[in-house]
Specification:
The chain is mainly beta and 155 residues long. 15% of the residues lie in helices and 49% in strands. Strands 1, 2, 3, 4, 5, 6, 7, 8 and 9 form a nine-stranded antiparallel sheet that branches. The chain is built from one helix and nine strands; from the N terminus they run H-E-E-E-E-E-E-E-E-E. Keywords: Signal.
């Protein structure tokens, strides 16, 4: 009988240890969806769609933007495109994600920029409304002509 009690005690002790480790394990930061599309009108610079890819780590979040709405007239070196993505925050206010990181772009290429960085809180719901891109000192302001699909980023 003692052996049975010892076995039960060992199993319960192991289960308690595993439960304690799981409780103390860090929670992975999440954003849903991780990718969304939206259409922009950039005035004289053109119009087209953009793919937004989001990620988060705590309150720090990033969004990468790849858009056919703006193409480069000449080759652009890496890290020379300054971008600001404005998003509606929780249906009322706004927040911005900014950055000046981009891959080298060949003449005629669609603009890719990011990561654009911003700050979020758990539960924030963000939907893109405009994109401002500065290339070689020339500013292109793009306004969303569609809603972000499949919906806002929820952090």
């Amino acid at each position: 009988m003692k052996r049975g009690k010892l076995a039960i005690s060992a199993v319960l002790g192991t289960a308690a240890t595993v439960a304690g480790v799981l409780v103390m394990a860090p929670v992975a930061d999440a954003v849903t969806p991780t990718t969304a599309t939206i259409s922009f009108n950039c005035g004289i610079w053109g119009s087209g769609s953009a793919t937004l890819t989001a990620s988060a780590s705590g309150t720090a979040a990033t969004i990468n933007v790849s858009t056919s709405a703006i193409t480069t007239p000449i080759a652009i070196s890496a890290n020379s495109v300054k971008s600001t993505l404005t998003l509606t925050e929780n249906g009322s206010g706004t927040t911005t994600f900014t950055g000046s990181s981009n891959p080298a772009l060949a003449a005629g290429s669609a603009v890719s920029t990011g990561p654009l960085t911003g700050t979020v809180a758990s539960g924030d719901s963000l939907s893109a409304t405009s994109l401002t891109v500065v290339v070689l000192g020339i500013t292109a302001t793009c306004t969303a002509t569609s809603t972000q699909s499949p919906g806002p980023f929820v952090f």
